[in-house]
Amino acid sequence: MGEFRLPSEISEEEWPAPEVFTGEAKRLADEAAAEGLVLRVMGGMAIHLHSLDYKDLWQRLGRLGKKVFTDIDFVAYGKHRIKLLKFFEKQGYQINQRLLYHYGKTRQIYYGPKIPMVEIFYDKLSMNHEIDYAGRLEKDFPTLPPAELLLQKLQMVHMNEKDIKDAVVLVRAHPVGPGDENMINTEVLTGTLSGDWGFYHTSVENLGKIRDSLTRYDVLSDDDRKVVAERLDLLLAGLEEAPKSLKWKMRAKLGTKKKWYNEVDDWDVIENPAE
Fold first, then answer.
1. Which residues form the domain of 233?
2. Which residues have CB under 8 Å from 220's CB, separation 6+?
3. Is residue 2, in this structure, part of any structural domain at all?
């Protein structure tokens, strides 16, 4: 199988096509489900899979290309950690022992014959802000629900152009409302952010960045801009109007005078799990 290499160390000539990544992600989720294991795709690939009706919008924005996916990112429950280790070995993947030692029980990183790197996060995503997946993985398949996919983007203190494009596609493809059935669940967003001022602050800033980006992308139709702007406004209004916890209010008084997010170093990122 060869030695483990980070995606950044692999040339474009060797790089699997995007459909190889997505096909393998769906196959692994299906195979895991057949064994009673909960395994869900996260990040930019999950947004792509959950927004296939808007694949043309991805293409117009220049989001899809030769090396668009750097790895497959999954999330699973920690109670399945040992079973998933055996599952991935059976699927032809090898675990990176050095990174396993570094991360302990929170993440596992594999490499295999088809995909340069597969990463599994357990129970939560802990980057600039924390997203807890308890009870949420069963709400969709083979990806996380749209609300969590959006939160993954919103938690980034330094949201880049690719992340903004992902968010534009996600919001264009999904209405917002109080449910998970192919929509961005406003109750999940307000429930997560109304108790954490730091996460709330970063998310509101990023929702504003996404909205501002709509005028920069000439490839967007007038309808695209109108629909995305209306949905972003609904999300912002809902967050502002939602009742806030006492902890949130106390932290809000300090504002940005005190660091409101967690630092993420190179070891934590590897290759951005929200890509």
1. 7-269
2. 57, 60, 168, 214, 228
3. no
